[in-house]
Each structure stands twice: as structure tokens, then as C-alpha cells.
Records
---
Amino acid sequence: MKIPIILNVNGTSHAVIVESYWTLAYVLRDMLRLTGTKVACGTGDCGCCTVIADGRAILSCITLAAAAEGMKIETIEGLSADGTRELHPVQSAFAETGAAQCGFCIPGMMMNMKAFLDETPTCTEEELRRALGGNICRCTGYAKQVEALVKARDSIRRKQRARH
């Protein structure tokens, strides 16, 4: 059954007509051409498809597109700081530390960790490691990713202190 919905993605409203069983990942990638969101497992186990919906990290491969109507959705394409071309601290830290290898899992990892750091900017390294547990990377031992996330966390903390 076709359903007309409006998705708010990266600050832009998109009117789309979807089948009731289509996933958010499918609509983002194949209808809206936002291919930064990756699909690996299709079962919500690997984290590659992570996007942010209303401030929370969600797995878009197991979220129905129709269920996302009315949510504010952020994808890796919209991660730059405040809609500018300036990289988000998570992006900058991944680039500076060389934390991305093949890059397939990285968009989902960045979105998951952006949501986590937004909610928990004073987290410990151990908490970062646990939060990263929902993202599977086959290329690394996670050392560079953890290094990048500590760097991003520290950058976010500095920016918050500068504002106050």
C-alpha cells in the first residue's frame, strides 16, 4: 500500500510516496539519493545504517520510513556544524587521527557517536568504548576510532566552556 509522507531530513522537507514496508534506509538512499547512510546487515546488528532521529541514534535499516514521518532526521550529509561547511568535531577528529579506513562503517559510527556525545559530553573513555559497541568495523581494532572520539569529546567540551 502506497503512503504519502513528509520526511524532514537534514533540515529539508521531502514529500515522498512510500510502500508501507519500505525502510528509512531504502528511502534515504534510493529515493532521496543520500547514499552516505550504508546498509550492511539489514537486520540492525552492525550500526552502518545509523542516523539520528529527534536527537537519538536509530538504525535506519529496521525503521520503517512511514514511522519516521514527523521526526527531525540527520544523516552524515547533514552532520557539518550548524549547517555550515565546517566539519563537526567528530568528523574533524576522524580525519585528523586517520580513524577511517575503508569508510563503509564510518558514517553510521559518526552518527551514533555524535548522538552519544550530544547527550553525554562529559563521558569517560570507557563510556565512549561502550557506546561504540553497536558499530561493527571489520578493518580496524577500534584504537584509532577511540582516539578520534576522545579528541572529539574534548573539542566539544572546549567549545561548550567557551560559550559559557
---
Amino acid sequence: MGKVICFDLEGPLSPQDNAYEVMSLIRNGDKIFEVLSFYDDMLTLERRDEYEPGDTLALIVPFLTYHGIKDDDIKRVSNQAKIVGGASELVSILKDDGFNVHIISTSYEQHAHNIGEKIGVEKGDIACTRLDLEGLNDKFKKSDLESIEELENDILGFKLPEDQSRIVERLDRFFYDELKKSVDIFAEVRVVGGERKVEAMLKVASDHETDLKDMIVVGDSITDYKMLGKVKEAGGIAVVFNGNEYAVPYANIGLATVDMRFLELLTNFNTDKALKLVRVWEEERESYMRSPEDIPGATPELIELSATLSIESFPYFHTLERVSDSKVEEVVKIHKVFRKTVRGEAAKLG
């Protein structure tokens, strides 16, 4: 038993999109990654059988192999990653308050374990994507490498989003026909995204003998929408943090902030009381900016932090239970600004 909170990693805890940065080690790798990420979004929205959001981390593996990227390169890029403001402090606060803190992430384990160590989350409490690049090298034939080179040239000629149909057709042909004859990349790299995040979350709940209605989950993107939706449906606290349009509609609370410590305000309440606090915040946000000592339940440290924030960076909380489409659009716009501030270039990825 005990209180349980599960965080997505890239976004809520670290701003870096590790896979994007690793691909950027390759010439034109950023462009290739953006096209593959777009393809990932299209397959997810299409609800392609056996495809999960976040499988971009499987899609990029042939390119990493072709260009000789190693596991150590992933670790080296990860070592350059920053931590979201207040994330380490929040984890410490939650643990002191009796929370079992878990990370459920699409990230490769080389990155997820590194960030976990920096913020105080043990490897055993992290569900993430296992990748053994060196072990995959021998599975690619010479003909596969030639196909990868041809595909790269085609990708560099595509324009987003105008060439959507051409992108889907060409990448389908490569991943589901040409490459699959020798390497089923989706079977070799089981990315923890979408439904697999839900499976990992259910295991966490079972291990702690906790119902989903008593859990808190925090996510921000298309890989998290199923996890957020599952907890929201069960009556738990599903927080979208600086989220995008794929995640916001599936949460029941929105938090747009440059510092994760504001999440602490929700963690000692059940869902109904947390939603009530958020409703009051929506009405009193400007008042709290002027007089942060009036923030309900704020610690001296949080009051001090609040006093240092500008109007633009002062947090927004939003209720997202049974709201109109227009409110969802309003929240997405606000979150987009904070997302760009916190994540930089990674904000444009799904």
C-alpha cells in the first residue's frame, strides 16, 4: 500500500528529447527524425494494429545502426541533458511525504536510468525502453543498409505536412516490407509507449496494491494519452504538464509551469479536493501572483519561489473534467507557450 505517483520522463522531468538529440549526431538526422516522428503521429492517429505511440524510438534504430551510433553515444548525449526546474526537489519532497515515485518512459534505458539517478529515482522504479544497438548490428544485411541509404535520400526530399500520403506510403514500404524480411524492428525494440505505458502503470499499481483512483500520473504528449485517460476514467489524478494537443484532452488537471514544485499542491488530496483547489486557482491566479502567501497549502519555499516569477511564468492550473472544446483549445495554447519555454526545440515533437 502507499501513495503512488508515476511520471513520464521527457517533458515533466527532463526537457531533452534524447532520441532526437542522438539522431542529431547524424548528418541531417534532425530532419530525418522529424519526418519519422510525423509518421509516428500518423500511425497513432490511424490506430494502426500493434503500433504504439512512441515507436519512433524503434523507427530510428536502422538509421542509428547504419551510421555507427553506439550505446555510449546515447549515454554521452544523455549526460548533457538538463533537469526541469524543481523536478529533483519535488521528487525529494514526495519521497519524504511517503510517496512511491515511479518513472514510465519511452526513453531508452541509457537515458532514463541516467535521469533517474540525477533526480533520485532508482532503476527498479523506472519502466523504459531497452535498446542494445551493438546486439542489433549483425541482424542488418548489406541490402538493408543500401535500402536505408535510399530511404534517407527520399526523406530529405519530403516536406511536412504537405507530403503526408507520400511519407506514409514510403515508410510503410520500408518498415513493413523491405526491412521486415530480415529485421522486424518493432519486435526487436519494444518501446514503452501508449498501451505499454498503461501496462507498466498497472504493474506499479499491483505491486503497491493501489487502485488507479488513488494514483497520480503526469504526462505531456501522445505517448501518455492512454495512461492519462485510464487514470482519469478511474477517478484518479491525471495531470497534463505543459502538454500538447494529443495529451491535454485526456487529463483531468492541466498544469502549465516552468517549475515542477507546484505539482506538490495537488499531492495530498483525493481527486475531488484536488479539482476544487484547481478551480479556485483558475479564479484566483492573478490574486496569488500579487499575494503568493495566500496560495492554499503553499510551503514557505513555494511562496518564496512564487514571488520570484513574472506574470508570464506564473503557473496555470486548469480543470479538464467535462469541459468544452473551446476550453481545451485555450489550455493547449497556454501549455504550448510553457512547453516551448521549458523544452525548446523538443516542444515541436509529438
---
Amino acid sequence: MRLAAISSTVFFATLATSCGGTATPNPGTRPQPQEYPLAALVASRAIVTPTYALRVAPELSWSSSGSSSRDLLRAMDDDIAAALAERGLTRGWVLPADLATSYKRNPTYASDPYALAEEPLRASSFIAGSRLTEPLASQLRTTIALHENARVVLAPIELRFDRAENPPGAARATLRLALIDPRFSEARWVGKVQSDTASTDPRILSRLLATRLVDLIVSR
């Protein structure tokens, strides 16, 4: 256990040297270290939980698109998995589909990845250094115990679509995330990624967000 604690401390000391909130690398310049606040995940990998919550601005009339809240959240999960795979980062990572399989195999022990108690993470007061509350702290400790090669959890907390001025009916998207150390029940990083364009298609925006997220980890 002491070795695990030391390993975790070294990982987060490395992370802290480049920690930040949002990041939007400029493809025309050489990336600087601070542009990749989650770069330590290239070596350490992570468990990625399902996207927890969705918020759509009421003035966006997307009800006719046929996309339910569940569909949009699961699409965000799929786009994150695809963006990680595109950069060669899926080996050793535990993604939402893996968590669902693990839960089906261990329903009496594992936590349902789609029913994690993440609501407190949506508060604006939840920042780096914040402690997890129960039952989420225990849920994530159990998740880590079932996947021993991963030490941290990357949690997409909230996917938000806000109205854009143009074109009519278009939105811009934001994804808020937290990097959590379940062994210490603490958030080590909290930040967000945003789409740099507007679209009337939420799937286009979710793919942009997934790319922005992976941009925090590694260059293209």
C-alpha cells in the first residue's frame, strides 16, 4: 500500500507541473508543456467513466432531432473512446464499455458505471483539491480495485450545449471533467474543454470536444 501511495504521489507531482484548466493548442506553433496538463496519462493511463450529466440550453429546439439525453451522453462516450484510439491511447485504458462489462460480471461487488453518485461534482465549488463524498468515494475505490493497472479516474462530469448566435439553432459545447485519485478520495485536476465552432448537429460538437480532451493529453 505504501508503494502504491508513493507511485500515486510521483504521478500527481508530475501532473502538477503542467496542471491547468482549459487548453487549446495552436497547431501553428510548437506545443508547450502547459498545453498538455494531462500528459502524465500517456504513461499511467486511466479509467474513464461514462459522461454523467447533460445540460441543453432551453432555447435550443433539438427535440425534433430524435436524440435523447441518453443518446447524447453515450455518443460523447463513444467519441472520447474514438479520439483516444486515434492517438493510440486505448491500450491499458479502461473505458465506459469496459466498466459496463465488469459490472455485469461482478454485479454484487462492482458499481454500476451509469449510476455513480457524481452529482456533487457538478457544483462550481468542486475544484482541484476537493474531497469526494460518499457513496462516490467508495464506488470509485471499488472500481480501481477491479482494475489494478489504473490508478486514476478521468470523469466527464457534464456535457453542456449553449446557444450560439449563428447559424440559427446552432450551439457551442462544453465538457467539464475531473481527474480523481480514488485512493485519497480527492480531485487532482478539474477543467473543461470547449468547441471552437458552432453547429446545429450535437454529434459534430461532441466529436470536437473529444478531440479537445485528447489534446490535453498528447499532441496530434
